[in-house]
Write a structure and sequence with these properties.
alpha+beta, four-stranded antiparallel beta sheet
Length: about 150
Amino acid sequence: MTRISNAKKIPTPDRNNSLCRDCDACCKYVSVEIDKPATKAEIEDIKFYLYHEDVSVYIDHDNDWYILFKSRCNKLDSNGLCTIYEDRPPICKNFERDSCHEEDWNASHKVLFRDVNDLMRYLRRRRPAFYKRYYSSLSKQQSGQGV
């Protein structure tokens, strides 16, 4: 979880405390579940996310889709130690060790989309019927036929 400075290391009942005490891996990103895209509009939303710097989308091992913002918590000090450890938000306190990606980020997901090309390749290979409908609707829209 988060690291705390030696001056702030106090015993806590957190079951993750001993495992996460010197770790700031989960403090360097925010990951939010999103719907699996089923429409052209949802694909367009994901494309919008992927056009931004330090934003990715991934599919985890349960086939759930997430948007990932690589953004360091501003409550970490220059050594990566949590400056609000005792008063950190519940989401930090309750973070599950099983969700930690410190040792191998690649193990946390089945598919990672770093850009729109990754997404389109995935759709073409893994969801070809959906991919065809998506591009068909784009072609109709571009030719003025509507969607």
